Structure to design on (910 residues):
């Protein structure tokens, strides 16, 4: 044992599926006193789960601080390479060190009890009682028997086995507090009582073992996992008050108290654990996910492996108390992957840089000194992991698989080993693909999903995930073809599928069809907040901000803790320049789910607008930690680090990163085009013959098929006399190169110049005018009438100036009068209506084409209160394009605008 060992003690308690929605009312009634005392002397909060919400994957993320793609536990079962068929995921399947391995290697002594996929027991420094402890049996003639490898050290197995509690040992005193009317149950037709007894006795067994080891053995770290709340909830949550319409009154009366009783029982067990741990031990209590308990309880489960997970909620619970931990406070943004780094910090051990989580430093009264190590996997020394090739006993594997099948988490494949192996391999790859999609790595998920679809081309869930994966990768033609190929085997008129169709249409520039699909989704009145959230995202991409805001608010009405809806809402507020509302929504989002890069980005933008560069930098750096390819975050950081004699090295780094990402995306777009035909390598998707013919000929899209130049121009546009010259002055002052021939001199109408390029008027006849390499990135003044003539092979960022029509009409009339030229032969009202119609038509067109990106700037707001509008311009163009953004406001002369406005009013009154 090292000198460090013995200075710290940590007790980690896992309550699978525990949920504040059930706990809070019990706390208010004073029915969970042990938990209330723990909360009062520590911190509490939500604990965000991961995807997919499957316990073996989640609890190994808790133990390792890593996502499933790194720790290797991809569900419940995996192919058995030795005996054929399938076997449960076990400790031999885990690819990296768990907390108890790291602690063992560092000289600390651990107890590990009941942890998911801990069987066979690892030979660590301490004691391990695995999740196969339920297989302990007692025979009057043979005595105690237990699964091989269930207990480490093996010589303690006979002693520890005696703590097993059997259902037959339960009496009325144990059962009636949960089910007062238990004597009325007909056990021949209703298996509820036997199910209850099995769950309760298993929980009592785990608790007996954990308390015994804490009493009898020296320890620095104890991790004990209870699965009973999850199992009680799956079996009895449908009977939990209030009664659901489809639950018979008699069944409701029998089982309505089970779930509340389960939580109270866990509180009693918690009280004993806290007593044994003592006041100088740091306690961490957590759950891997929540469990639906209110109006969103599903009526049934999906008919697929892991179907019961439909009951699981996004947020579990987190409580932490002990020496040096804040008292009676909430913490925000915690996730399952943060538990392991936090435990390592408590032991003053280094955190692996390859861990996906972070230490929850906000829980500490005094910030601990954080140390890091590249990876604990590279550190030599005995850590207690199994040697390569360690195998699970085949008999135990069969028993565990039978248990998983009975719970509905895997398919019951009987004795067909080939079918077992195929199903196990397929489900493990599917779960891994879902993890990768959750991590925003569709490029890695795609080959897995394609392989799965080749094996099972008739299953909705695989086809739907592959279509979504194609979309996330930017392969829109692929996604469209796959949706069509799905034909009748999926539900093309379901809300998720219609929403995906809408997103594809919008991404490909077919805004009319995309909007039709969005309206069809709304007409279905989906019950789930997830659909409304994605609907909001789609409307936001259309710049229909009111519709997007409405969709996000509908999601939040169904689920006030929907972090993604709050993130979307914060983006709407940011785009409207509402700083306080942006921060409020974004902070609430990251308090629920820390891993939200767009929410952190929105906070950064608001802090930058508010003149708080240090907080802005922190927010942008956090956003990049979760999503390194956020170009605008790099651009903002380049500007922030470069301002006021800042860190020029970091400024240059972020400027280079932004450029690299742009180049990489250009290459990806090319790869996507080359990839578009590969879908038809997927065999045996059941497609009607007439539909297959259609699939082979993709609808031509000239805008997509024309070779792209890769150039991006900035167009300053709007109706004549709407403030375009002022905008050209502003962005020139910000450092953006402009294209002007200066042929038109300044005059009384534009005292500071017109900033025009005469040749732009010939662009329809001479599109090659923009082909010169040195013009790329320039800003050009382009009145609204010329926008549709711009060559579609280029990309454009359009700053569209919006000025009140009455001011525009009067300003145009005054200028024509001064010049002595002939304008439109329309009266003022006709001209006003005509210009209004033209402006609306131009706006709608700009929103409907893929090569134009639009921002509208209100001219009066720009002149009267420049800062919010200038911040929007910097965000839209990118800080790297405007290296002198601090100079932009200096060219705005409000007095000139007031004079012009006064002159217009006077002339209009004559």
């Amino acid at each position: 044992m090292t000198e460090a060992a013995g200075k710290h003690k940590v007790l980690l308690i896992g309550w699978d599926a525990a949920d504040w929605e059930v706990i809070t009312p019990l706390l208010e009634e004073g029915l969970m006193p042990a938990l209330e005392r723990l909360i009062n002397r520590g911190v509490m909060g939500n604990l965000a789960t991961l995807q997919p919400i499957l316990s073996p994957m989640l609890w190994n993320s808790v133990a390792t601080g890593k996502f499933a793609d790194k720790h290797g536990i991809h569900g419940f079962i995996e192919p058995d390479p030795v005996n054929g068929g399938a076997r449960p995921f076990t400790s031999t399947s885990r690819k990296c060190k768990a907390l108890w391995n790291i602690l063992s290697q560092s000289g600390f002594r651990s107890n590990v009890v009941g942890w998911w996929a801990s069987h066979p027991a690892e030979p660590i420094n301490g004691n391990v009682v695995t999740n196969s402890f339920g297989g302990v049996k007692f025979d009057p003639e043979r005595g105690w028997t237990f699964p091989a490898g269930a207990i480490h050290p093996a010589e303690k197995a006979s002693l520890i086995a005696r703590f097993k509690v059997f259902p037959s040992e339960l009496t009325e005193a144990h059962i009636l507090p949960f089910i007062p009317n238990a004597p009325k149950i007909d056990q021949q037709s209703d298996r509820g009582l036997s199910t209850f007894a099995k769950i309760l006795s298993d929980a009592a067994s785990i608790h007996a073992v954990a308390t015994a080891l804490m009493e009898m053995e020296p320890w620095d770290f104890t991790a004990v996992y209870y699965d009973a709340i999850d199992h009680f909830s799956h079996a009895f949550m449908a009977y939990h008050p209030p009664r659901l319409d489809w639950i018979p009154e008699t069944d409701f009366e029998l089982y309505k108290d089970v779930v509340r009783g389960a939580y109270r029982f866990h509180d009693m067990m918690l009280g004993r654990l806290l007593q044994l741990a003592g006041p100088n031990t740091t306690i961490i209590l957590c759950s891997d996910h929540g469990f639906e308990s209110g109006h969103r309880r599903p009526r049934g489960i999906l008919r697929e492996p892991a179907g019961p997970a439909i009951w699981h909620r996004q947020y579990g619970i987190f409580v932490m108390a002990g020496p040096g931990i804040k008292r009676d406070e909430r913490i925000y943004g915690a996730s399952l992957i943060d538990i392991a780094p936090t435990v390592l910090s408590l032991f003053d051990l280094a955190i692996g840089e390859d861990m996906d989580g972070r230490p929850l430093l906000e829980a500490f009264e005094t910030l601990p000194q954080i140390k890091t190590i590249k990876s604990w996997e590279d550190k030599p020394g005995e850590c207690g992991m199994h040697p390569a090739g360690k195998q699970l006993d085949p008999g135990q594997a069969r028993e565990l698989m039978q248990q998983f099948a009975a719970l509905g988490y895997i398919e019951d494949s009987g004795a067909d080993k080939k079918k077992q192996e195929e199903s196990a391999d397929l489900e493990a790859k599917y779960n891994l693909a879902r993890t990768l999609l959750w991590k925003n790595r569709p490029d890695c998920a795609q080959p897995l999903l394609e392989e799965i679809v080749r094996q099972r081309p008739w299953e909705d869930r695989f086809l739907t995930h592959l279509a979504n994966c194609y979309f996330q990768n930017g392969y829109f033609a692929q996604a469209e073809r796959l949706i069509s190929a799905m034909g009748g085997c999926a539900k093309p008129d379901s809300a998720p599928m219609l929403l995906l169709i809408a997103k594809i249409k919008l991404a490909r520039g077919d805004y009319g069809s995309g909007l039709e699909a969005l309206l069809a989704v709304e007409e279905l009145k989906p019950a789930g907040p997830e659909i409304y959230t994605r609907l909001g995202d789609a409307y936001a991409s259309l710049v229909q901000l009111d519709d997007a805001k409405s969709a996000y608010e509908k999601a939040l009405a169904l689920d006030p803790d929907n972090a993604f809806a709050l993130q979307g809402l914060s983006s709407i507020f940011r785009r409207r320049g509402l700083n306080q509302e942006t921060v409020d929504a974004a902070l609430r989002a990251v308090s629920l789910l820390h891993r939200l890069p767009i929410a952190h980005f929105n906070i950064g933008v608001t802090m930058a607008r508010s003149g708080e560069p240090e907080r802005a930098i922190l927010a942008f750096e956090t956003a990049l930690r979760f999503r390194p390819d956020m170009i605008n975050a790099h651009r903002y950081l380049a500007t922030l680090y470069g301002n006021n004699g800042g860190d020029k090295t970091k400024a240059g780094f972020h400027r280079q990163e932004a450029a690299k990402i742009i180049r990489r995306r250009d290459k990806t777009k090319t790869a996507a085009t080359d990839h578009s035909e590969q879908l038809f390598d997927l065999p045996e998707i059941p497609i009607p013959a007439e539909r297959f013919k259609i699939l082979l000929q993709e609808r031509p899209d000239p805008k997509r098929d024309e070779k792209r130049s890769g150039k991006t121009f900035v167009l300053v546009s709007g109706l004549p006399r709407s403030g375009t010259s002022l905008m050209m002055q502003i962005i020139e002052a910000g450092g953006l190169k402009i294209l002007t021939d200066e042929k038109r001199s300044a005059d009384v109408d534009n005292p500071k110049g017109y900033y025009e390029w005469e040749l732009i008027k010939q662009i329809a006849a001479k599109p090659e005018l923009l082909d010169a390499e040195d013009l790329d990135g320039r800003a050009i003044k382009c009145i609204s009438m010329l926008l549709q003539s711009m060559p579609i092979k280029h990309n454009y960022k359009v700053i569209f100036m919006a000025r009140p029509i009455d001011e525009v009409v009067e300003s145009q009339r005054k200028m024509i009068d001064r010049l002595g030229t002939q304008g439109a032969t329309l009266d003022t009202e006709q001209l006003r209506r005509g210009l209004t119609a033209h402006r609306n038509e131009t706006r709608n067109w700009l929103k409907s084409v893929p090569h134009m990106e639009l921002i509208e700037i209100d001219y009066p707001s720009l002149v009267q209160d420049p800062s919010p509008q200038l911040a929007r311009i910097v965000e839209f163009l990118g800080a790297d394009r405007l290296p002198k953004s601090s100079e932009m406001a200096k060219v705005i002369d409000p007095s000139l605008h007031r004079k012009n406005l006064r002159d217009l009013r006077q002339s209009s009154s004559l």
About this structure: The two ends are 96 Å apart (CA to CA). The first helix runs from residue 20 to 28. The mean pLDDT is 84.
